[in-house]
Amino acid sequence: MISESEGELYVLYVEPTRKYQGIGTLLLDAVTQELKELGADVQWVSVAKGNQMGIPFYESLGFRFYEEKKAYASLEDEDRVALRYKRSI
Ligand SMILES: CC(C)(COP(=O)(O)OP(=O)(O)OC[C@H]1O[C@@H](n2cnc3c(N)ncnc32)[C@H](O)[C@@H]1OP(=O)(O)O)[C@@H](O)C(=O)NCCC(=O)NCCS
Question: Residue 24: inside a domain, yes or no?
Fold first, then answer.
């Protein structure tokens, strides 16, 4: 939870040989359910800029682009960029 009514998911990885089998959706559904129980009605996700696996996945599940920011957990001298997307839940 990042506020009383909003939660954020920072990373989500599926074993490469098991992609496109619905597992990412099931994992996201489980996190979403947990956030709802904690009182969230908005869900955020972070995804690396240029990640052509993650971005279409989240967009297909109703997330819309909101902003760019310095990547979570990147070091002082790194300039990796994350994109933040959000949806209502
Ligand atoms: C992103 C990721 C978690 C998706 O997991 P997955 O188990 O393959 O996804 P699903 O099988 O549940 O797919 C869900 C939907 O997204 C779509 N989708 C998934 N990956 C896609 C891609 N690369 N391009 C277009 N659509 C995609 C699927 O078509 C499906 O839509 P549908 O139900 O309408 O057919 C997985 O590709 C992954 O681990 N990628 C590397 C890490 C990453 O990018 N994580 C996200 C940012 S941290």
Answer: yes
Name the domain count of the chain.
1
Residue nearest to atom 18 of ligand 1 (CA): 57
pTM for this predicted structure: 0.89
Spacing, Cα 10 to ligand 1 middle (Å): 15
14, 23 contact by CB (below 8 A): yes
The answer to whether residue 79 scores a pLDDT higher than 80 is no
Q: How confident is the model at residue 31 (pLDDT cuts 50, 70, 90)?
A: very high
Q: Are 26 and 61 in contact (CB under 8 A)?
A: no
Q: To test the ligand 1 pocket, which listed residue (53, 61, 83, 84) has its Cβ within 8 A of the most ligand atoms? A: 53
Assigned domain for 58 exists:
yes
Nearest CA to ligand 1 atom 9: 24
- Domain range holding 29? 6-88
